[in-house]
Amino acid sequence: MTLDDLRVFIAVYETGNLSTVARDLDRTQSAVSQHVRRLERETGLPLLERRPRGVVPTEAGRVLYQAALGGIAALDAGLDRLAELRDGGGAVRITTGGVTVRHFMADGIAEFRRRRPRTSLEFHAAHSTQRCVELLRGGRVDLAWITLGEPLPGIEQRPVVDLPWVLAVHASDPLASRDAILPDDLAGIRYIAQPDDSTSRRRLEEEFVRLGCGRPEPVGVADWDTAALLAELGVGHAVLPALPRLAAHSPLVTVPIPCLAPISVGWAARQWTALSPPAAEFAALVAS
Question: Which PROSITE patterns match (predicted)?
Answer without folding.
Answer: HTH_LYSR (PS50931)
